Amino acid sequence: MKILVPVKRVADPNNANKMKVSADGKQVVSGDLPWAINPFDEYALEAALRLLENGATGERAGEIVIVSLGVDDVQTTMRQALAMGADRGIHVKCDEGALDSLVVAKAFKAIVDAEKPDLVLMGKQAVDGDSNTAGQMLAELLGWPMATFAMSIAVDGKTLTVGREVDTGVLTLKVTLPAVVTVDLRIVQSKAVQNGITPASHAYPDDIRHISVKGIMAAKKKPLDAKSLGDLGVAQATTVTYSKFELPPARSGNTRYVETVGELVKLLQTEAKVL
Amino acid sequence: MTDVLVVAELLDGQLRKNTLSAVAFAKKVAEGTGGSFDVLAIGEGTEAAASSLAPYGARAILTAEIEGGYLAEKYSPTVSELCKSRSYGVVAATASTFGKDLLPRVAARLDAGVASDIAGVSVDGGTIVYRRPMYAGNVYGYCTISTDVHVVTVRQSEFEPAEESGGYTGAEAVEVVTDGPSDRIEFVSLVAQKSERPELTDAATVVSGGRALKSAENFKSVLEPLVDAFGAAMGASRAACDAGYVPNDLQVGQTGKVVAPKLYIAVGISGAIQHLAGMKGSKVIVAVNNNKEAPIAGVADYFLVADLFKAVPELTAEVKKARAGA
Fold first, then answer.
1. Which residues contact B217 (CB under 8 A, 6 or more apart)?
2. Which of A107, A182, A204, B107 is in Cβ range 3.0-4.6 Å of A135 for a Cys bridge?
3. Does the model's ipTM exceed the 0.85 cut?
4. Residue range B109-137, pLDDT digits in tens
5. CATH number for the A2-270 domain, one of 3.40.190.10, 3.40.50.620, 3.40.50.1100, 3.60.15.10?
6. How far apart are alpha carbons B186 and B183 in whole angstroms?
7. Which of A9, A28, A137, A242 is the best mutation test for B, with the most CBs of B within 10 A?
8. Nearest residue, CB atoms, A186 vs list B134, B144, B248
């Protein structure tokens, strides 16, 4: 199976509260926050690896191709994904600050048309724009079926049984490849991915794998091709334009400390009026 | 003048009330631009849903009866073609997992721009400006969409449900279009959460526990009675999920559920950034913690400095009393 995993870099999501807005409100400023792979894309890559390997022996079949859009420096993040285990990368050069989901979906479609993967496995959303749209748009542009918010995947030949984490419970569906699957947090739980190769008794940790030194060394030699959006025949013509950004209104900042349950209940009743 | 199409969400043949947030949004845009709004009930049981939608002031209520469980592949052609044939300027749904799944597909078919999970909208001289949270709610962006059709999902907690305003009765069936890849996808089942509690993402009150609860048993015996006294949804910090006290799907945070209830109670949660990102949009935040220096204080309106194992049972009893008398 060949799997395409889009990988986006985002400003360190563990410090998202340190994002600033420029004085004129026109730009979001990440300052000196380091770049990291979007967490949901890491989950997708972990799931892709679990789909193709024997978890017990480490043997791997198939191919994982990653694709990233952005400036040259994006390759640093791509190497991390290669170090985690992806086989090769495609870097689509562009100003990543001037994209929207539709442009991104069109770029991915051009890559899919050329690469013909069986599966596009991606994060449900990037934690910078938080749009949660590119995967669905890609599926529609390709005329492919999709499963979003995936929390479990079981492979049976050309069919995936996917458990989707929806608001009201778990919605299970079967998709015939090729398809787009976008993953949610729980896809990295120990037994979430069943590929029929890894013994059912094998337990992965409930998280993504660590990058090994060996992986880092190997990643340096893995192929990483660069193209431009123009090479893909995609215009960087965005349909969504941000005119202004602002920080959320600060919370009151006046935390009221109380020592007894009685005081708290009284405040919740008379002041906050929530009880 | 912009006409809006609201795609209603149905579950078990009934209208889901979260749809009323998208209706409230549609009313606002219609009023602001001098247009109208219609609501499309799509799926199974559209007749019942249409009658539930009658009192909310839509110009028309449309139905598209599609059997066999929800699949975006089956719904998107119908919604898209309806939008084209009736020239809507905005297609909207509530940003539930239904709206977030379906509407981007509709947008791609229409080659339209999307503003997802919006927290606000304004109409400025005919231009519709959408306000939406980004970076897990740490930044808000104001955006406009340049395509003829705008596709919008609406954050439920930011739009009060529409109020009844009379109007339309009856419903008009629209053409069901089936040209998507629906032969390559099959709905198997929807297994509802067993919990009697409200869903985390649309509960008015959320009570969450952290690692300080120390065990799965304590979540059950100490926290759950408080959750139920409030009629709340239960959440947890990542640390509590990682420790195995509660399942991962209760995780509130940047990579878990983002919630914004009227009241959020954080019990024994220190307040990692990852957690704050998932709940700081809550209207009133209460922390129960024995360490008054815990970072949760940065967002808490009320902070009960106490040993949770003593305070929570006491609070449970007080809440029961207060709610019984209310």
1. none
2. A182
3. yes
4. 999 999 999 999 999 888 999 999 999 88
5. 3.40.50.620
6. 8
7. A137
8. B248
